[in-house]
Amino acid sequence: MASIPNLNTLRTGRGGPRLRGSRRGGRGASSLGDDASDSADVASKDRIIQSTDYDASSSRLSALELGYLTDPYAKAFLKPGEQIPRRYPIINRGTYVRSTAIDKLVLRFLQAEPGIRKQIISLGAGSDTRYLRIVGDHAGQDGVVYHELDFETNVAAKKAVIERSPALADRLQKMKDGGCSYHLHSVDLRDLPSSLPGIETDLPTLILSECCLCYMPPEQATTAVKYFNDRITSPIGLVIYEPVRPFDAFGRTMVSNLASRGIHMQTLKRYSSLDAQRQRLKMAGFDKQGARDVHQIWETDAWVSEAERERVERLEWLDEVEEWQLLASHYCIAWGWKGQTFDSAWGGIEGARTSAEDRDDELG
Ligand SMILES: C[S@@+](CC[C@H](N)C(=O)[O-])C[C@H]1O[C@@H](n2cnc3c(N)ncnc32)[C@H](O)[C@@H]1O
């Protein structure tokens, strides 16, 4: 195999800021110098993590342009004169599966127990448009409280896009008039404040981490989830999308691709399999869990209907079937929940804990 791209970190040409070599200071540096270079190092690493939003949003635009996805709002995030990048077919298919699978979990939550107001908290939301795309059409009469959390730089960029796009601003206003409320929070999830404005602790709440918690040290990722778990007194669910299986040949290449960009996904080795992801959710207090890799989701009618699979297969010729299977089996969606609202939303979803079905053992 000549090269092994991965869904979110394929070189884009535009790239992101890169680490300028290793940490300076070294032996003999004063503690003041050490502190300064430590914080420069952290800031530089944070900029790289912030720039991963471009990978996610440009992959979405590529999939959108080719007809994989529908999203009337995503193009507002293109900079003036910027061309929509074209991703490899396997990347487009991966983006399709990832987006539609998370949409499905979100939709089932919104449709469960009609008449109950609900809340969604999206961690590291970046340029995601899910609030505008699907929440607006499925909020019901009671509305939805929606929070997006990200670093200040990314939140400021999103606010600027909303301000200069009449279509986005109009949609937001209509949703507000319909009873929804939208909150954009500039926060570092590694250091959450004691309270976040607008969070309603008594609403059934869905937390989303679409490729976000994986950029944090595992302990801090756990603390961030606990932060919400401790505060929400109603049913709560969590959806995680992130890479898995770093220890096989493909996984090792994936890890080294990331490292060449200065990204060390610390949760990847800790939660390396579907089983480990389910355990993680269990330990976090979600008494029911499910996990599927992207390849399993693609192949399962309950997730992607046969008609949809045929439609998607016709969009682009994909001859790297083996590469697709490898790539797709290295990304997973894991979901965990507690409480009645989520029992009705997710109880019957294919993929809830049935370890006999896991392919982790074969794939190692
Ligand atoms: C790969 S992007 C995903 C964006 C979006 N969830 C999506 O899937 O389109 C990761 C996002 O997580 C954010 N993120 C990562 N670590 C974070 C932290 N500690 N605090 C706030 N945001 C963080 C990044 O800034 C970035 O916007």
UniProtKB/TrEMBL annotation:
Record GO terms (molecular function): protein C-terminal leucine carboxyl O-methyltransferase activity
InterPro entries given in the database record: LCMT1 (IPR016651), Ppm1/Ppm2/Tcmp (IPR007213), SAM-dependent_MTases_sf (IPR029063)
Alphabetized UniProt keyword annotations: Methyltransferase, S-adenosyl-L-methionine, Transferase
Start-end of Low complexity biased regions: 29-39
Gene3D superfamilies: Vaccinia Virus protein VP39 (3.40.50.150)
GO process terms (BP): methylation
Record's keyword annotation contains Methyltransferase: yes
Primary enzyme class: transferase
Task of the protein: Methylates the carboxyl group of the C-terminal leucine residue of protein phosphatase 2A catalytic subunits to form alpha-leucine ester residues.
Record: residues binding S-adenosyl-L-methionine: 98, 124, 188-189, 210
Family recorded in the similarity comment: Belongs to the methyltransferase superfamily. LCMT family.
Keyword Membrane recorded: no
EC number: 2.1.1.233
Region (Disordered): 1-39
Reactions listed under catalytic activity: [phosphatase 2A protein]-C-terminal L-leucine + S-adenosyl-L-methionine = [phosphatase 2A protein]-C-terminal L-leucine methyl ester + S-adenosyl-L-homocysteine
Protein name, entry field: Leucine carboxyl methyltransferase 1
Top-level taxon in the UniProt lineage: Eukaryota
